[in-house]
Design goal:
Elements lengths: L2 H7 L5 H16 L18 E12 L8 E10 L2 E8 L6 E6 L2 E6 L2 E6 L2 H9 L5 H7 L11 E2 L6 E4 L2 E11 L2 E11 L2 E12 L2
Antiparallel strand pairs: 1-2, 1-11, 2-3, 3-4, 4-5, 5-6, 7-8, 8-9, 9-10, 10-11
């Protein structure tokens, strides 16, 4: 092919188009990776005293897949101590599970229903519900509790396994300026529970 014909085929690219192409390439190389889920705030950002409220749907493994028990909960955390109010479909009305130090009590109004060292054992004994009470404070904060049985399998906080439960975070929300779980699901041999958080705030 002669030089004259080649020059006719190779047309110069306009200067403006060159600038656009260069900028597009630079933006493609420098653009940050997008994340489909916001990271849960770190433990150091969480206050020591806080309050969470919402609903817990329990599906015990012994009752069949179609039966759910829906409870309203209100959890007030004060350092290592907590007060958990549960009301719903277990025939006791509203009950209060409270931990102070090593002692856990369960009350209905002014009536003491029982006390024990384990909140899980006490609740199951009196209501028949298998609810990991002592771990809720951690799960609602987007992390496993400090036990040797915890194994985090996702750095994006999509879930973890702990104490025979597989916990999955289904959605996050902004509560009191912090990114925290809005909906989580836990499944184990005892059954399945789904928690929907409607309120989370630092206690002042």
């Amino acid at each position: 092919m002669r030089g004259g014909n080649l020059g006719g085929l190779l047309r110069p690219i306009p200067a403006k188009r060159c600038v656009v192409l260069v900028l597009a390439m630079l933006m493609a190389n420098c653009a940050p990776l997008t994340r489909h889920d916001a990271p849960i705030d770190t433990v150091s950002q969480l206050p020591e005293n806080w309050l969470s409220a919402g609903k817990i749907a329990l599906q015990p493994s012994t009752t069949g897949a179609s039966i759910n028990r829906v409870l309203r909960y209100r959890l007030q955390q004060r350092g290592e101590d907590f007060t958990l109010r549960l009301s719903g479909a277990f025939g006791l009305g509203a009950v209060l599970v409270e931990q102070q130090g090593d002692r856990v009590t369960m009350r209905r109004g002014d009536e003491l229903l029982g006390d024990a060292e384990s909140s899980e054992a006490l609740l199951e004994q009196l209501t028949g519900l298998a609810l990991p009470v002592s771990l809720l404070r951690y799960w609602l904060s987007g992390r496993p509790g400090p036990t040797d049985q915890a194994a985090v399998f996702s750095r994006s906080a999509s879930g973890f396994e702990q104490a025979g439960w597989t916990v999955a975070y289904l959605s996050l929300g902004l509560f009191d300026g912090l990114t925290l779980p809005r909906k989580l699901r836990a499944q184990g041999e005892q059954g399945k529970l789904t928690i929907v958080v409607s309120e989370w705030q630092a206690a002042r």
